[in-house]
Design brief:
Blueprint (H helix, E strand, L loop, with lengths): L7 H15 L6 H7 L4 H7 L3 H19 L11 H16 L7 H9 L4 H22 L5 H25 L3 H11 L4
Helix pairs in contact: 1-4, 4-7, 5-9, 6-7, 7-8, 8-9
């Protein structure tokens, strides 16, 4: 296999897909290198180990969600229902794309209890998602109720993503989004 030039950003994007599909423990550094068209040695030039690339994947994924999904919640010049709808559409493009679910939930289920450095990434992600939903819902509900609903919505979405993976059926997540929108009718 010829070695190809690739950027750190491309390595992170490809590694994201591999981790999301296979999980952290089932993924080897050799598989990550191969998926990126690199030798293991060249891969080590970019990342010192599998933990380092996973941390960067989680950091980059969180940044992407913050910019493309969570930020919509704070566009207060737009009606709450429209913000929620746009958040659902933006997250759906990522989470339901290929029935592999949410890398943060997958990581939490697989390794949070044994890998503390990954646990903080997942906590931060879910806290930011919760804050974004809470902000939108506060247009219709008292702050405490909005916060509880935000947690419920995330639990519903993530549970639906698990069922989507089990059944390989994207209807599961679509129904969760529909239930979410009913909170703003």
């Amino acid at each position: 296999m010829p070695i190809q030039k690739t950027t750190k950003k491309e390595i992170i994007a490809t590694s994201y897909q591999v981790f999301r599909r296979q999980g952290y423990h089932r993924t080897t550094l050799e598989q990550l290198a191969k998926a990126n068209g690199l030798t293991k040695g060249v891969f080590y030039h970019h990342f010192k180990n599998k933990e380092a690339i996973m941390q960067e994947v989680l950091r980059t994924s969180h940044s992407y969600f913050a910019a493309k999904v969570f930020s919509i919640a704070y566009q207060d010049d737009m009606p709450a229902r429209d913000r929620m709808q746009q958040m659902m559409e933006a997250s759906n493009r990522i989470l339901a794309k290929d029935c592999y679910g949410c890398i943060f939930a997958n990581t939490a289920l697989e390794i949070n209890h044994i890998e503390e450095e990954f646990a903080q990434f997942t906590r931060d992600f879910f806290e930011d998602w919760e804050k974004a939903f809470t902000h939108v819902l506060e247009s219709e509900y008292q702050p405490n109720k909005a916060h509880l609903l935000a947690q419920q919505i995330i639990a519903d979405i993530e549970g639906s993503l698990i069922l989507m993976q089990v059944h390989q059926n994207k209807d599961m997540i679509q129904r969760a989004y529909e239930r979410t929108m009913k909170h703003l009718e």
